[in-house]
Amino acid sequence: MKKYRSLLPIDEEGYYGRFGGAYIPEILHDNVKNLRDAFYRYVDDDDFQKEFDTLMRDYVGRPSPLYRADRLSEIHKTNIYLKREDLNHTGAHKINNAIGSALLAKRMGKTRIIAETGAGQHGVATATVCALMGLDCVVYMGATDVARQQPNVERMKMLGAKVVAVHSGNKTLKDATNEAIRDWCCNPDSFYIIGSTVGPHPYPEMVAHFQSIISKEIRAQLKEQVGRETPDYVVACVGGGSNAAGAFYHFINNPEVRLIAAEAAGKGVDSGETAATIHAGSEGIIHGSRTLVMQTSDGQIVEPYSISAGLDYPGIGPLHAYLATSGRAEVLAVTDTEALDAAMTLTRNEGIIPALESAHALAVLDKKRFHPDDIVVINLSGRGDKDLHTYLMNNSIN
Ligand SMILES: Cc1ncc(COP(=O)(O)O)c(C=O)c1O
């Protein structure tokens, strides 16, 4: 008996409204079909779910705490709760999806894993589960990101992964993803673990499903702490959209819960140096799905820019393109400077150094007025150790 029912606004073909689908070369058709079949088969399998739940608890350390940030709440005159994905093993939400996907890869008999990474958190998470499960691991990473996220590169190597620096384009996440897809085309027996809610169907649905544990826990934790399961706001940063998808998932069908996505404006939405895809993009196809894309009038991808490697991407997951254009989610564009300021406020008032990506979500507190009675949950997607160099270079620390 089928138990799995996605709570996402998705149809049979993997479309969220007019976004999504699977736009892939012929050579990948079988791969994507096999993946889809395996996902729908195992997502309903009790042994699979049990293994996932056990690893989430005993290996990742879940549930991650929901922490009431008293001093931050006082500053912003509202009630702020931080979902501490930064406390997960490997330091970010990415491990939730890496474990689910690797378990699926094992069930499918795969022995070689491919991944792309921007900030290095998905690369580290994938290298970690490959070490845990005895799988070969190749991670593609833009050369710019290799330089700005050096600690994560060293961690991946120590974990036994091969890290391939990509020198095409502006040497960031888009270029790493292109190379990973190219590898998959040449090695269709490999399993591609995508690190976000991007790519052809079923990836956005599958990644959102593995990340949905975030909002499942938030509901239970809020119930225990404040006596109700739903907050007034859920706030998350959006690169491709996986931490936001996980934080929004169990609230999407509660219209009274307002969803806020923070995208990276870089030096400003109109500066020509931005990664604010929802503000600056238009409908197009990137990495296998129809979504919003930053592109020229003749369809060439515009190189994105953000201080944050994990948000430096010219596309957006199709779920978020749908949530934004349908008005279900509000999208705010946060500049580098605003994110750096928000990171310092959290660090100096709560003793938590956030990832630069998560700092974009925190900056929403400075851009929007909340009511003193509001309950505002911010998904703290990762920790900032990997970003110390960038914080220092930008004089955040004195
Ligand atoms: C800590 C952290 N947060 C957020 C992101 C953005 O990815 P996504 O939008 O898929 O959550 C990344 C990506 O590397 C990350 O490392």
TrEMBL record:
Residues in Tryptophan synthase beta chain-like PALP domain copies: 61-382
Xref: Gene3D superfamilies: 3.40.50.1100
Domain of life: Bacteria
Modified residues (N6-(pyridoxal phosphate)lysine): K94
SUPFAM superfamilies in the cross-refs: Tryptophan synthase beta subunit-like PLP-dependent enzymes (SSF53686)
Matches recorded under InterPro entries: Trp_synth_beta, Trp_synth_beta/beta-like, TrpB-like_PALP, TrpB-like_PALP_sf
Cofactor(s) this protein requires: pyridoxal 5'-phosphate
Gene Ontology MF annotations: tryptophan synthase activity
CDD domains: Trp-synth_B (cd06446)
Any Pfam family hit: PALP
Family according to the record: Belongs to the TrpB family.
Function: The beta subunit is responsible for the synthesis of L-tryptophan from indole and L-serine.
Name the UniProt record assigns to this protein: Tryptophan synthase beta chain
